[in-house]
Q: What sequence folds into this?
């Protein structure tokens, strides 16, 4: 009896998973033409705003294996200032960060008992620092763009070009960049996770498009 119950639960879970994956692929096929024009930064503004200042927050907790690679990749974008927030790591993450000597890398550290209170607190900690930095440098807040990149993430080579195209428009307040797995597609789990990441970004916009067509 127990085997039958667990087999039934497994079968239902597998059906839901496969159905979810199929719907995700279908949504991608439907939304891709519109996404390419509206979401990928292909709408070039009349003029690129050269006064934009980018701060990229990198939350870090025990990321010794990847943190240097992530920071070095971000330093490839000349307009980026990288704010790394170490949330009381117990490994060698901090020393790895300190080995990168670049004035655009700012290391902030949280210590116990105030650390390990959630990613939101880490981001707010960095945001306070960025606000104070902008005030000291007398940079208008409307020229400050704040982004978040995970410690094991990497931006596409044309990431800054896309961001400049978006934020040079006064209509843009926030944007979500496409998330992909790294390294590229080594197994089926990564492929399915990539589909999931895609749907998390595309699904709200797709619903918006459908609602506009129905109204």
A:
């Amino acid at each position: 009896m127990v085997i039958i119950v667990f087999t039934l639960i497994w079968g239902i879970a597998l059906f839901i998973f496969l159905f979810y994956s199929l719907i995700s692929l279908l949504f991608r096929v439907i939304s891709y033409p519109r996404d390419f024009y509206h979401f990928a930064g292909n709408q070039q503004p009349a003029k690129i705003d050269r006064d934009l200042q980018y701060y990229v927050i990198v939350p870090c907790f025990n990321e010794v294996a990847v943190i240097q690679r992530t920071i070095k990749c971000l330093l490839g974008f000349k307009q980026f200032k990288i704010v790394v927030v170490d949330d009381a790591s117990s490994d060698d993450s901090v020393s790895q960060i300190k080995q990168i000597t670049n004035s655009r890398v700012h290391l902030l550290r949280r210590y116990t008992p105030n650390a390990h209170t959630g990613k939101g607190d880490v981001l707010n900690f960095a945001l306070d620092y960025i606000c104070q930095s902008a005030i000291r440098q007398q940079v208008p807040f409307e020229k400050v763009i704040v982004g978040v990149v995970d410690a094991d993430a990497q931006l596409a080579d044309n990431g800054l070009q896309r961001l400049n195209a978006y934020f040079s428009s006064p209509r843009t307040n926030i944007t979500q960049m496409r998330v992909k797995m790294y390294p590229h597609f080594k197994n089926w789990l990564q492929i399915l996770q990539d589909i999931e990441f895609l749907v998390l970004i595309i699904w709200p916009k797709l619903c918006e498009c459908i609602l506009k067509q129905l109204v």
In short: The chain is about 50% helix and 15% strand.
